């Protein structure tokens, strides 16, 4: 960032997506004074290898895990849209909910998945990125889109920058050396996703952040494709 972002909105598909893709960056910006809103599209109710687990129980578990992880990163607010895992679609309803959050929160920066990865990606990730990008431009900007929101006191808003996580051609690297441990702590909150206790998540995360950092001459980093929106 060229200057401090007062407000950062993170729009992702599942509980734990933000922590995996941008946990260090979120913690870094929050520590520097940014207010962070996390918008989670689905309730994550399918992501379990436990044959005894039910979708209803898993949804409750994952919401609580996300709340704990958000605290670990310094996130100010979490909004759960509640769509079923695997159920995100490019609909007017979903787009309107993202537009509402943009107009309400008025973020300087949005972090969301890159919807244009060439390699196969989770469909929910593609939908979250696609719908969020469309919500940023033109829907949140133009007053004739979702005019019913304006009657509730919201106003159109222009987002300055979008940071696309999971990009195959990143051009922005964030040094997360000082917040790497916070990222690991936040991921450990998602215990339902790490049933294999033989796999140390800290090793996986450190090695990944180190590999990313090497590309930019940094000890540990996260990478994004930055899109500067027209003002």
Descriptive account of the structure:
This protein is α/β, with parallel strands linked by helices and 231 residues long. The protein has one domain (9-228): LmbE-like (Rossmann fold). It is 40% helix and 19% strand. The protein contains seven helices and seven strands. The chain has helices spanning 17-31, 55-73, 92-105, 123-139, 147-150, 180-188, 201-214; strands spanning 7-12, 35-42, 77-83, 109-113, 161-165, 172-175, 221-228. It has a seven-stranded mixed beta sheet with strand order 3-2-1-4-5-7-6, with helices on both faces. Helix 1 (17-31) crosses helix 6 (180-188). The longest helix has 19 residues, at 55-73. The mean pLDDT is 94.
Summarize the structure.
It contains 7 helices and 7 strands. It is of the alpha/beta class and 231 residues long. A 7-stranded mixed sheet has the order 3-2-1-4-5-7-6, sandwiched between helices.
The CATH class: Alpha Beta
The count of strands amounts to: 7
Using the alpha-carbon principal axes, give the shape: globular
| CATH homologous superfamily title | LmbE-like
> β content, as a range?
15-25%
CATH topology: Rossmann fold
State the CATH architecture: 3-Layer(aba) Sandwich
Q: Tell me the strand order in the biggest sheet.
A: 3-2-1-4-5-7-6
Largest sheet: 7 strands, mixed
Radius of gyration: 17 Å
Helix-and-strand structural type:
alpha/beta
Spatial separation of the terminal alpha carbons: 17 Å
Order of helices and strands: EHEHEHEHHEEHHE
> Can you tell me the number of structural domains?
1
In helices, the fraction of residues equals 25-40%
Name the average pLDDT: 94
Quickly count the helices: 7
* Residue runs with pLDDT of under 50 for 5 or more positions: none
């Amino acid at each position: 960032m060229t200057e401090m972002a007062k407000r950062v909105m993170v729009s992702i598909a599942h509980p734990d997506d933000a922590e995996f893709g941008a946990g260090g960056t979120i913690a870094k910006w929050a520590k520097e004074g940014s207010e962070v809103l996390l918008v989670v599209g689905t309730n994550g109710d399918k992501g379990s290898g436990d044959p005894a687990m039910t979708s209803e129980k898993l949804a409750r578990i994952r919401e609580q895990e996300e709340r704990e992880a958000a605290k670990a990163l310094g996130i100010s607010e979490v909004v759960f849209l509640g769509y079923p895992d695997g159920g995100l679609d490019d609909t007017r309803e979903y787009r309107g909910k993202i537009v509402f959050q943009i107009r309400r929160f008025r973020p300087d920066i949005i972090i969301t998945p890159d919807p244009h990865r060439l390699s196969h990606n989770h469909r929910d990730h593609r939908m979250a990125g696609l719908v969020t990008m469309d919500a940023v431009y033109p829907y949140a900007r133009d007053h004739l889109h979702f005019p019913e929101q304006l009657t509730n006191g919201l106003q159109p808003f222009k987002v300055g920058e979008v940071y696309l996580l999971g990009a195959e051609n990143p051009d922005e690297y964030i040094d997360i050396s000082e917040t790497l441990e916070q990222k690991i702590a936040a991921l450990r909150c998602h215990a339902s996703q790490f049933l294999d206790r033989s796999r140390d998540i800290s090793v996986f995360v450190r090695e990944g952040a180190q590999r990313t950092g090497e590309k930019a001459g940094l000890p540990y980093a996260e990478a994004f494709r930055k899109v500067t929106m027209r003002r």
